[in-house]
Structure formats: structure tokens, C-alpha cells
Amino acid sequence: MWEQQLAFWVLALAMAGAAIGVVRSPNVVHAALFLVVVMAGAAAQYVLLVAEFVAWVQVLIYIGAVIILFLFGIMLTRAPMRGEGRALDNDQRWAGAVVALFTFGVLTALLVDAFGNDKIRFDDSLVGQGRTATVGTSIFQNYLVPFEVVSMLLLAALIGAIVLARRD
Amino acid sequence: MGLNYFLILSAFIFCVGIYGILARRNGILVLMSVELMLNAVNINLVAFAAFVRNVAGDVFALFVITIAAAEVGVGLAIVLLIYRNLHSPDLDEVDQLKG
Amino acid sequence: MLDQAWLIPTLPALSFVAILLFGKRLPRKGSELGIVAVGASFVLACVAAVQWIHKIDTASTEKVKPVLHHIEWWQNGAVKFGVGTQIDGLAVMMMFVVTLISFLVHVYSTAYMHDDRRYTHYYAFLSLFTASMLTLVVADNTLQLLVGWELVGLCSFVLIGHWWEEGVNSTAAIKAFLTTRTGDIGLMIGVIITFFAAGTFSIVGINTYAGSHGAQHDLLLAGAICLFIGIIGKSGQFPLHTWLPDAMAGPTPVSALIHAATMVVAGVYLGARLYPVFFNGFSIGHGGVNFMAVIGGTTIIIGALLAFVQDDIKKVLAYSTISQLGYMVMALGVGAWTAAVFHLFTHAFFKALLFLGAGSVSHSGSHHSFDMKKDMGGLKKYMPVTFWTFMIGTLALAGIFPFAGFWSKDEILATAGKTGFDGFMIVGIVGAFLTAAYMARCVYLTFFGEYRGHGHPHESERTITVPLIVLAVFSVVAGFLQASPFGIEKFGEWFEPRVAFPALEHVEFNYGLAAASLAVALVGLGVGFYFYERRRQLTALDGLTKRNALANAGYTFLVKKYYLDDLYENVIVDGTRTAVAQASYWVNQHVIDGVVNAAGRGAARLGRATYDVVDQRVVDGVINGIAIETGLAGGEVRKVQSGRVQRYALLLFAGVALLALAIFIVNVA
Questions:
Q1: Around Cβ C351, how many Cβ atoms within 10 Å?
Q2: Chain B residues inside the 8 Å CB shell of C635
Q3: Which of B64-78, C238-252, C407-421, C595-609 has the lowest mean pLDDT?
Q4: Which of A92, A106, A110 lies nearest to residue C650, judging by beta carbons?
Q5: What class has domain B3-90?
Q6: pTM (2 decimals)?
Q7: What is the CATH architecture of A2-91?
């Protein structure tokens, strides 16, 4: 359906441009904001893929918490905000660009080869799948143990971050 | 809607994230690049969930988001420590293991 | 005994060892061992002689072969070396002479060498000498002959230098040894040449070859010349005669034994033994002139002339010996083999007699001096036995009928005249005159006139006079073994070789020549006696040599022994020694040392270069280079461990991408 395609393409381009902005921006805060664009675009893509719960969690957690954390981190580490642009890139950016392009090439070739003709069927069963109830049921029925483990992980991360960052 | 579009978009953002990890000097920017990569993976997962008609992909994406959040917390704590010790968030200066 | 003839040299050899080992402990200090051994050898030699004569007399054929015994010692390739005995007439005669005179000398020496400082040593070497001479005589091959030859030379050296504490004696001993050694070079080369010519060392073999038709004349001539050089040295021929007078420094019995009767005749013996080589090499049978006769004739005259100007009685006798040896060599040179050997035989007796007589004079008459003019004179009345025996010896030497020398000398002259060597006959006659004259001088100065010495002259003891009498008897009768006018030709019959021997011309007794030579000898004796008897009246001759330059020159020439000694010692020896020494020194300093030093320096430089270049630069460079390169490589590789996480991440991602590509290609493409 052309609406889907158009939406996808707009979002895709926006995300791609913002991603490049993240990694190429001379200003750290600008990079963080570009990251917000990428995450928002990702959330929109989830909606497009009829995974509304995931989209909402993305917005909530990523954009709501993670980016804020980043901004706090930027503030606390007095990252250079403007002007000292080139200093933000180290000396292996060309090698990194090569590696990244190369990886992208390999991945694309692989994907094209593997899923060249596959299409996503957008129909009602898909709608049902992405609903919060379905996801929740699946978590608490099929993936309970991972859920608990993740809780532990969060706890560990919380404690760990406090321990690491405290001044004493 | 072809599956590949999502996948290739995901691959693209993933590779941009690779570039960012390798090329950015500031520790926070490296963490942001890691977030890029994780988002790319999420897009991949959700696309496959839609393709395979399995909700597991969504669940997996949720877990990824959760863990990413935790990881960002710890990571920033580390970056803060680095900044505190070396008075610069520059990762190039963290080379005590230089051998 | 002909088959056991090896005993004859062995007994004195054993006594030599025995005397050396325990002679000093014996009551007579070893002389008894020597006397017994040589006496036993003499007896055995007489037995051998009788046996041989019997063999000749009872032989069925003319060609009586020598009795040969040979033991092969070792073999080198195709050449066999061994020792053995060859007993024929010549050997038997020589053995008789050697053992007899050695025995008499042994007995004589008990008195003469009494209280000597090295009495035992003297007897030991007398024994060794006798053994060596006998080895030489019985030898059946030239190598054994050479061994005996060298050994007698050694004994001569030892015995001449018996009183070596006085420098004169040791110098004389060395001179004797070296001069005969010079001749021995020729002898050795001659032995080698004859070996290669005949293919064997055996004397019979060499003689057979020399007489055969296939013999190469040039080889024989070369061999004969070389062998003759050995004879010149050993038998005191001109020009290597200079050692003999100086050898008189030894004890008188030694002079009698070695330098009159036995060793010096070893050369003549060699000539007689290998006569076919000389006969065919020098073409003696063709008359005219040959090397051997020339040397012999020259020696006769030279020796005789020098005998006139000697004051030492032993030196007179020494030159007389040289002259008589010249007779023997000349005889061999003119083809008178029997005459030469016969003269050897008779000369041994009367010359030994004369020497021992001189020894007796010195021992009891002139207080151990040999100077005739100073310490002798008028001894006729004090020492009658010595005087009469000495007179007999003189008459025999001068060739007066009927003493031994007359017969032998006459045969030489006759053969010379008959076989076409007329010139040498004249030389022989002149020599006879001179011999008689100088002997008359010698006798007169010693025994006639007034006693000029300082001692108390008296006759010597019996151990000295008895040998003199024995020898005197032999000097009288020995000649009759070859008294041709009386039809006795026993000497030639018994002793001349029959096998492997050239056919020599045997001349008949020439009455005219005999009478002439007898007259010449008598005239010589008379002239000699008269000159010295009337010495005081011939005042015109007083101081002649001082007034007349020519006479002085002639006298000086003789006194200086023809300047030969000066020539040998000052010109040849010194010149060679200085020139050779200086040349050698130069070569040593510049050439040899130069090479050695250059080699040393070169080696040192090479070592340093090796150290600098190879060791320091190359080897160390490699080693150090490896270390440095390893360090540098490590340094380079270390850069990977930069401590920068992003660097690691780059490598990680790059590796993963490549791995992915690889898997992709493998699985998909």
C-alpha cells in the first residue's frame, strides 16, 4: 500500500540522516538530539509494523529516560559543546568508515540474498499480535524467567551504577 | 511491504553505529552509537516478528530496550569515573593498558 | 773354518763389548780380553788360511770359487739386504795380516800404554777396530764392506784422538775423519752405481757383471771413478793424503796398526776386491795412462819428497806410508794385481815394524819424544834390538835383496814396464831411490851420531821387543812367497782370484830391471848416509836454504807440504764456511725470517680483519640485528596493544566483517 511505503520511506530517510548526524556531529548535544530523532523514527517504524506496545515502550524508556541520562552525562563530563569539532573524532575514523561500509555491504548482500522476495503480510492477525495484551501474555507465560532475570539485571545495573559513580 | 526494506534500514543504522563506536572520541558519543546499534537491532526484531507472525520478536525487542537502559546507566557511570580520573571524557586518554 | 769364517770378526766384537762392560774391573784392565780375543781370531785365521791353501792345492779345476755364506736380513721391494762372508785367497791373506799385526800391537801396547789415562777404553777400541776391519775383509756384499769401512774410520777417529785433552790430537782426529769422509762420498756413490749397473750388492755378482760382455762401459767407468775417490780418501792418495801425517798424533801402536798396516790399506783392498770394475772401467788392460796409475804415481813422489823435510820420526814414516800406498795403487792401475796385493802384504810387516820400532825409541830412548833432531841420535848402542829390527825394516822398505820389499816392489816395476805403462815404471824407480834416501836420513838421525836427548836411553822391555823381532822375521821371509827367480809363485797361486777376474798378464822376473832397481836403492841408501855422515864437512851447504832464495823456496814449499794444507783449510774450508755461513745467514735473516715474519704479520692482520669485519660486523651484526629487529618488530607489534579500546573495537569489527563475508561466500556464493 502506498501509504505504508511513503511513511516508511520518510521515516527511513529521517532516521538515516539523523543517525549519520549522531556520529558526525561536532556538537555532543546535537548528537544527542539527533539520537532522539532516530529513536522517535524507530518508534514510528514499530507503529508501522503494528507493534504498538513496543513503540510505546521505546518512546517511554529510550527517549524518556535514556536520552535524559545521556544529557546528564554530557553535562557532568563537560563535554565540549561547540567549536572544538574535529576533536570529537579520533584518528581511526577512516578505518572505521571502511569497516562500517564493508559491514553494510556484506549485510546487504546477505539480506538481499536471503530475504529478497519476502513480504510482510499486513492483515488482521498481525494487528492482534502487536496488542499489548498479547505481548504481556507472552511475557508472563512464555518468557517469565527472562523477565525475572531482567529484573535482576536492572537491579544489578542500578546498584552498579551507584557504586561506580559515587564519590568517596 | 517488502521485509528487506526494514532489514536494510536496520543494517544501515547498525553500521552507522559501528562507525560511531570506532570513530568517536568522546565516551558518551560512543555510548550513543551503541544505542544506535541497539535500536537497529530492535527494528530488525520487530520486522521479523511481523513477518514470522510470532510475538517473540516483540518480546525480545522489549527486553533489549530494558537491557539497553540498564547498560546506558552503567556505561555512563563508567564514563563519569573516567572523566573524574582523567579530567577528560576523551577515550584516547584511557590507555594505561598500553603495552 | 772357511765356512765358519764369521767367527773371526765376531770374537773381537764380543771382546769390545766385554771390555766396555767390565774391563776396568779385571786385573789387567781389559787388555787380557783383547789379547785373548784377537789371539783366538789369529789362530782361526791361520786355520782358514791353511784350509784355503789346501783347497787350492787339491782343487781339481783351475777355477776355484770363493766360499760364500750369506744370511738375508731384510727385503725392500725387489732388493735384498744381507750379511755374509766371502772367503777366498785375498780374504784369507788379509785376515792373517790383520789379526797377526793386531795381536802384536795388543801385546806391545801393554808396555807402551802402561799407566795410560784411558787404558781400558783404548783396548776396547782396538778390539772394535779389529772386528770392523775383519768385517770389511770378509764382506761378501758392498754394503757390508761399507759398514766395515765406516766403522774403521770411526775407530781411527777415536784412537787418533785418544789423548784428546790436547787440542792438537782432537783436531787431527777430526781432520782424519772428515778427509776420509770426503772420500767416502765417492765410495757411496760408487756402491750405488755398481748396484744399479750389476743389479746386486754382492761382490761376486758385481765382478761377474764387470767382466761380462754386456757391461756398460760408461757405468763401469763412473763407478770406478767414484769408488776410487773413496780409495783416495782412505788410502791417503794425493790429494786427500793430508790427514795421514796429522794422524800421527795418536799413540804409536795405533799408528802401526791402523795407519800403516791395516786401515789405510782398506782402500787398496777395495781396489783388489772389486778389481774387475776398475780394470774394465779404466781400461787398464790397454796400457797408456789411466786415472788410478796417475794418482798412485803422483802419490809416490809427493810422499817421498815430503819425508825428507820431517823432523818427527813418525811423520817420516807416515809420508813413507803414503808413498808406499801410492805404489800399491799404481800397481793396481797398471794391472799388477798380484804385485799390489803382495806389496800390501809385505808392507804391513815392515811398516808396522818401523812404527813399533819408533815407538820403542820414544818409549825408552828419547823420553817420549819423536823429534829426531832434538832428542835422538846415537841410540844404536843403547837399544840394539830396536836398532837391528829397525834396520831390517828399513832395508825391506828400501827394497834391498833379499828382504820382503825387494820382491814386491820389483814385481810392480816389472809389470808396469811390460804392460805398456813405461812412464810409471820410471816413476817407481825414482820413488825407490827417494825411499832409500829418506829412510837412510831417518835411520842416521835416530841411531847414529851423538845422543842429543835428555833422557836415559835403554832398551825396551820384552813385551815391546818381542813383537819387533817377530815382525822382523816376517819382513825377511815374507818376500819369499813370491820369489819368481826361485820358482816360487805361491802368493799369486794361492791368493789371486780365479773366478770373476780379468785375465791379467803375469810378467816374468826381469833380472835387468831388478838389478837396476836394487842398484838405485843402494845408491839412495848410500847417498843418504853419506850426506848426513858428512854433514859437518859440507859447510857449503850450511844455511843454503837461508842464503839461496830458490833453495829456500823449494824447502819452504816442501815444509809447507806443498801448501796443500793451506789450500784445504784456509781457502776451501774457510772460504766455503765463511761464504756459506754468510749466505746462509743472509738467507735466514731475509728470506726465511722474511717469509716467516710476513706469514706471521699476514696471519695477525687476517686475524684482526676477521675480528673487525667478520666478527664485529657480520656475526655480531647478524646477532645484534636479529635482536634489534626482534625488538623493532615487537615495538611495531606492540602498537596493536595501544590500550585504546576503540582500536580493539576496530579490529574486532573488521575481523567480524571479514568473517561474515567469508561465511557468506562459502555458504551462499
A1: 29
A2: none
A3: C407-421
A4: A92
A5: mainly alpha
A6: 0.63
A7: Up-down Bundle (1.20)
